[in-house]
Structure formats: C-alpha cells, structure tokens
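Subject line: Sequence and fold of a protein, written as structure tokens
Enclosed: The protein record, placed directly beneath this head.
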Amino acid sequence: MTSQNRNVSAVGITTRVKVDLNDEVGAMELLTKLTIASAKFEGLLNAEISPGPQGDSGEWSVVQRFHTAENAASWRDSSVRKNILDNLAAHLKDGSHQDETTLDECAGTVAACITSIINPGMEDDYCDWLSSIQTAQARFPGYQGTYLQMPSNSSRLWTTILRFDTPEALEHWFVSKQRLELIEKSKQLVASENIKRLASSFPGWLPVDEQGNSPPKYKAAMLVLLGLYPVVMLQSRFMMPFMTEFQPPLRTFIGNVVGVAMCSFVTMPFLTGVYKDWLLPQAHTDRAKSDTIGIGTIVALYLLENILFWFFM
C-alpha cells in the first residue's frame, strides 16, 4: 500500500538502540522518558516503544509520529531530545543510536487498550509513573511493545495500548504482583480509567474489572446466549419472510448485521447491566451464592424464552 492511499499517515521519527543488558533498567527509564518527552511538542500524534525482533537481544526502537515534517524536525533537533540521548548513550552497547525518518501509518496490533483521565496538576507525576510501569512490563515474557497516545491541549485523556504475543502472556502481566502494586500507586494520579482487552471472549459486549480481568468464559457464553436467542427468533419470525427472494448468502449476511447490531446496542448492554455483579463479583461477595443465583435466574429465563416463543410464534 502506498503512502498516498493510507487513511492516516504521519512523519515518523524512529530511534533504534542496542541496550546493555547489564544496565537494562537505567536504559528503559530513559527510553520511556524519550517516548514521553515528545508529548510537549507541537504536532505529536502518538509515540510507541517496542523491542526488536528478538526480545532478548537488547534491541529497542522508539517511534514518534507527527502531523508534519516541520513538527518532526522540531522534535528531532530539540535540546530536550539531545539531552536524553546523551544520557542514554552510557546505557547502550556501543553508545550510539540510529535515527530514521519515514512517512508512517498509525497502526498496530491491539492486545489491551487503556484510557486514563489524569487528575489536574498530576501530569508530571503520571509521566514518572509511566516510566516505572513501562520498565516493569517490558521485562515480562511475550511483551511486544507499548503505544502511547498523549492528550491534546484540551484533553486529559491518555491512551496506552499494550501488545503481547499471546493472551496468556498478557494475562500473566495483568495479574502480576508488580503491576498490581504499580496500579495501587497510580490511584492518586488517575481520575478514571477504562480497560478493553481483545483477549477476552466477546470483546466489546462484556465488561472488565479495574485489573482488566474478564468474566469467566462460561458466564460470557451463558449471557450471550440469553441475549442472542430472542434476537434470532424474532428475526426468523418477522424479518426472514420478507427476504425469501434474496440469495441465501445475502439473506444470511443481512440477518447477521441486524443480529450483531441488536446484541451490541440493545440486549447485551441491558443484560450486562443487570448481571454485572454476577459477571464480576466484588471481593466481599459470597461467590458460591452469587453464582448459584445468577445461573439459576439465567436458566429460568432460558425456559421462559422457549415457552414464549413456543406459544406465540
């Protein structure tokens, strides 16, 4: 695909280094600082830090994307960037770095997307905290990179996207003692936070808790079935008879579009609201009692749905 055909393109400044593995912590702190420092420069779209093809080779790259070549050049030639790179040199294998300027596309594989609104006046402390958590998560198996979207002048919203090679590796980091301790430290800095993970079943239809944990798969499946079954039955009764002249592939496609839309905007938002405490029980909840009541009421609703459709359709 050529750059002219891209929907979103930017001028990217890519900085590649080879870290001295004996001094990895110091290097990671400065690489994170390099990533975040560009947030104060005009025209920044986003910044990303990621390891090289071999995660244990010490190779890292920092990519910062700007609206224009002038914006990118302002950052590349800045004294702020130069000072960070000068300090970073002592933590590198050969003391040097490589720069590359490209017309880049803002893209990436999403494993977990975290959106955070920072308390006013806590931005510098939050940047320090980001450096700490980046240093920790970069050392976990399967880590493939972090994408950072800084807020605009009129916003306090920070967007962080973590990439891991497998859902299991992501889960390992999310439930780790290191992460939970760091999340506890961030609570005084963050006004609100939302986490969405593609590692969960039925992403977008079900909630996750503050630690990014998804409901058990059996609960997800039970609730989706409860919301999907009436949609399918109503489609077959009231919509499909009007599409008998359509070819089966088109008829199926239209049915799926309507079904997914109804689940996404009608049945699943309602059901996840009703069953939120069952899907993600609090620490003080009696889990056995909660599970029994939740499963029992859902099974009863299955029976009710079948009785209603049996007699009225």
Residues 3-197 form a domain with the Alpha-Beta Plaits fold (CATH 3.30.70.100). Residues 110 and 163 are 6 Å apart (CA to CA). The chain has two domains: 3-197, 217-312. The longest strand covers residues 9-18.
